[in-house]
Amino acid sequence: MRTLLELIREIATNIHAHVIADRRHLHAHPELSFNEFETSAFVKKRLAEMCIPYQAVHNTGIVAIIQGALKSDRVIALRADMDALPITETNVSAFTSLNHGVMHACGHDAHTASLLGTAKILNELKADFGGTVKLIFQPAEEKLPGGAIGMIKEGVLDDPRPTAVFGQHVMPTIPCGKIGICKGKAMASMDELFVTVHGKGGHGAEPHKNIDPVLIASHIIVALQQVVSRNIDPIVPSLLSFGRVIADGAINIIPDKVCMEGTFRTFDEEWRIAAHEKMQRIAIGMAESMGGSCDFTIVKGYPHLINRETLADRTRICLEEYVGKENVMEVDPWMAAEDFAYYSQVIDSCFYLLGTRCEKKGITASLHSSTFTIDEDALLIGSGLMAYIAVRQLDNGQHAFD
Ligand code: NI
Q1: What CATH code is assigned to 4-187+304-397?
Q2: What is the pLDDT of residue 396?
Q3: What pLDDT is recorded for position 399?
Q4: Active-site option among 22, 31, 81, 83
Q5: CA of 296 relative to ligand 1 center, distance in Å
Q6: Of residues 142, 137, 109, the one with CA closest to residue 302
Q7: Of residues 22, 81, 109, 141, which has the active-site annotation?
Q8: Which of 78, 141, 375, 387 has the highest local Cβ count within 10 Å?
Q9: How far is CA 352 from CA 8, 130, 262, in A?
Q10: Over the stretch 162-182, which tens digit does the pLDDT of each residue have?
Q11: Contact 213, 197 (CB under 8 A)
Q12: 224 CA distance to ligand 1 centroid (A)?
């Protein structure tokens, strides 16, 4: 008698080399957000080879359906993102990016290849489980407004509607073989701030004849920090960082304007909106009080990502069953943002981290770096684990096989 867990492990092992080959192909052919044409064609080709029905959603996005043969009306969804980043890869390998200036530096090649592996496993086992698995291959995680919101608007979560959505992300700080999970609020919301302070430029030796936007901008940067430190309960993480401040004058020239760009992140949607208003009010008021003016534009990014508590608990059990209790780590909330958050705002969802670090092999580079890579042994876990979570969530976990 073999359990579903054993069968999934066996198929995952058998297809590991194919998953690696797919990941390497995708790695060598990265495409930027909303331009995943070849990637999308590759995924469709693979799905067609497996006779898995699919539909295009939101341009390059794809939703595929695997229907278990046993009677069940349960539906769950698994999601992988497909886009790459505008980074020039400096790794040298047989599958180094062939698309100069574009690189899978966030592991979305691994996510896509892994989900294709999961599709293969579930497709081979479909006679032995009940319910529907939706496979979501999503474009544009890396670029606002993100691909998730477009796919949701175009109905990827409708007809049939899943009761749970799962996603995974490679993580170079977690050793290969281990999985990280954070229960509850797991990743931050992210908004982009664009601030232009207008003054009146002139000679640096005649400040009284000018309105110095550099001084106004300096006050604004300092004043806005009190929004995050004095207006919200300190147990709600909030951060504000300005990473770009352009005052394009000179040693003795006060410029006409200063442009600033920054990011605001938090874990509370109500506070997020309130903070936007406070920041705008303070900046505009401060500029006016000093004789200048201020344009303050906020481009809303992704909401915060929630791993619903009961679903996270159930997922954790699956993780422990698949990789062993000692290999599942509770991780802290992460201030990075991820558009998987959109699914989590409308349907119970769980997003976990797949360890891809291997110090022995020298695989330690951070996400979004030109030397990022993964320990491909993680793909063996990534593909099988998602298949296992799917069938367990569809309540087929106790099914045994001869
Ligand atoms: Ni990513």
Answers
A1: 3.40.630.10
A2: 53
A3: 43
A4: 83
A5: 28
A6: 142
A7: 141
A8: 387
A9: 19, 24, 27
A10: 999 999 999 999 999 999 999
A11: yes
A12: 29
What separation in angstroms does the CA of 81 have from each of 37, 43, 95, 116, 279? Answer: 13, 12, 20, 12, 33
- The pLDDT confidence band at residue 397, using thresholds 50, 70 and 90, is very low
Q: How many angstroms separate the alpha carbon of residue 141 from the centre of ligand 1?
A: 7
* Terminal C-alpha separation, the chain: 4
What is the Cα–Cα distance from 133 to 74, expressed in whole angstroms? 9
Domain map of the chain by residue range?
A: 4-187+304-397, 191-300
Question: Rounded distance, CA 381 to CA 257, Å?
Answer: 53
Asked if residues 387 and 122 have their Cβ atoms less than 8 Å apart, the reply is yes
**Ligand 1 mean position, distance from CA 167 (Å):** 11
Residue 95 CA to residue 103 CA, distance in Å, equals 11
Q: Whole-angstrom Cα distance, residue 255 to residue 133?
A: 58
CA of 249 to the centre of ligand 1 (A): 37
Q: Can you tell me the distance from the alpha carbon of 22 to that of 45, in angstroms, rounded to the nearest whole number?
A: 12
User: Is the domain covering 191-300 a CATH 3.30.70.360 domain?
Assistant: yes
| Global pTM exceeds 0.85 | yes
Checking if the pLDDT of 245 tops 60, the result is yes
Question: Which residues, 6+ apart, have CB-to-CB distance to 29 below 8 Å?
Answer: 38, 39, 42, 97, 98, 99
- The C-alpha angle 348, 136, 365, rounded to 5 degrees, equals 90
Residue 279 in tokens: 């920041």
State yes or no: is 141 an active-site residue.
yes
Query: In 3D, which of 340, 350, 370 has the Cα closest to residue 140?
Result: 340
Give the C-alpha distances (Å, rounded to integers) separating 291 from 23, 248, 253, 280.
57, 20, 18, 17
Q: Following CA atoms 95, 98, 100, 101 in sequence, which dihedral angle do they give, to the nearest 10 degrees? A: -50
How far apart are the CA of 157 and the centre of ligand 1, in A? 21
CA–centroid distance, residue 159 to ligand 1 (Å): 27
Cα 296 to Cα 399: distance, rounded to the nearest angstrom: 58
